[in-house]
Design brief:
Layout: E1 11-13, E2 16-18, E3 22-24, H1 33-41, E4 46-48, E5 60-66, E6 69-74, H2 81-91, E7 96-100, H3 105-117, E8 122-126, H4 141-154, E9 159-163, H5 169-181, E10 186-189, E11 193-195, E12 210-214, H6 217-227, E13 234-238, H7 244-252, E14 257-260, H8 262-267, H9 271-286
Parallel strand pairs: 3-4, 3-14, 4-7, 7-8, 8-9, 9-10, 10-13, 13-14
Antiparallel strand pairs: 1-2, 5-6, 6-12, 11-12
Bound molecules: flavin mononucleotide (FMN).
Length: 292
């Protein structure tokens, strides 16, 4: 494919031209307007909001480092929809993707209309959270289909559906097919993976099951992208990105762009600048075409 974009690292995500493919994922790093502006100031190509819901979640079960791994029991955003409406209005015109979740397809459709009315140009459905005490919606194909179809009818902006990676190729393909059949444009793979960390005394770290992120996820998610490669969906790869080479690996496996979280939580958001610089150098040296 000919790269008509303005720089070697630029990629096209729907109608957006991104200066490079590194997007900050839904997380505490994107919990409100100021935090999102901070991410733009260190060079984020786009930012996905913390998951917005009609039932703000005061629960923050915390996070911990466990060797190379990162473990959390964080809930959804603790900001009300009306506070988010103010934030999104103030961010209008910037490349902000709203990650949204509600318990029913009707409620999610209403929320989708609310964020689009505040200028949001791309939505990500947060149907993948493994830390809410039960399997997320994406694990139930018929429910996944209902949620996607309802939001598709409600808004006409591009819809990404965030999924939880499965170890079965068939399950990954089934989830992605539901998204495609509902005429949503793409998937974001993956959310954190459900896990338990035991302390030396046998009790569960942070008090129970949570979500695992960081370096260990990358080879697993690459396999998930491979599983769905022929389905002709826009794919955002998420999990364990630390270095420029990780970004290139995801693009080579079919991702249009990537999302990152843990590496910025552990090393600080300033790391984004050097990651972008290193990616620019790597693309220059190897003449990789990011627009695959
Ligand atoms: C503390 C923490 C909170 C998170 N909160 C959300 C969230 O609200 N919504 C969501 O879709 N993903 C959430 N995630 C998942 C990340 O967006 C991302 O999918 C995951 O961490 C894998 O990427 P990474 O290995 O680069 O961190 C959270 C991750 C962490 C570590």
């Amino acid at each position: 494919m000919v790269n008509n974009l303005k720089s070697a690292t630029a990629v096209q995500l729907f109608h957006w031209e991104l200066a490079h493919p590194i997007i900050v994922s839904s997380s505490p790093l994107s919990a409100h307007k100021q935090a999102i502006n901070n991410l733009f100031s260190v060079g984020a190509a786009a930012v996905v909001t913390k998951t917005i819901t009609p039932y703000p979640d005061a629960r923050s079960g915390g996070c911990l480092r466990h060797g190379e791994l990162f473990f959390n029991r964080d809930g959804y955003s603790n900001r009300s929809v009306s506070k988010w409406e103010e934030d999104l209005e103030a961010l209008r015109g910037q490349k902000v993707i709203a990650n949204i979740f509600a318990e029913t397809p009707d409620e999610l459709s209403i929320l989708a209309r609310q964020v689009v009315a505040r200028g949001v140009e791309i939505i990500e459905l947060g149907l993948s959270c493994p830390t809410a005490g039960k399997d997320p919606v994406c694990c139930y194909p018929s429910q996944l289909s209902e949620f996607c179809q309802a939001v598709r009818k409600a808004v006409d902006v591009p819809i990404l559906v965030k999924l939880l990676l499965q170890t079965s190729a068939e399950r990954n393909r089934e989830m992605a097919s539901m998204v495609k059949n509902a005429k949503c444009e793409g998937i974001s793979l993956s959310d954190t993976l459900p896990a338990i960390i035991l302390k030396a005394n046998g009790s569960m770290a942070l008090g129970g099951p949570g979500g695992l992120s960081g370096a260990a996820l990358k080879p697993l998610v690459l396999k998930g992208l491979y599983d769905v490669a022929d389905l002709d969906l826009v794919v955002l790869g998420i999990g364990g990105i630390k270095e420029a080479q990780d970004v290139v690996d995801y693009i080579r496996m079919g991702a249009t762009a990537v999302q990152i979280c843990t590496t910025l939580m552990v090393d600080g958001i300033q790391k984004l600048g050097s990651l972008v610089q290193n990616l620019t150098a790597l693309v220059g040296q190897t003449q990789i075409n990011l627009e695959m």
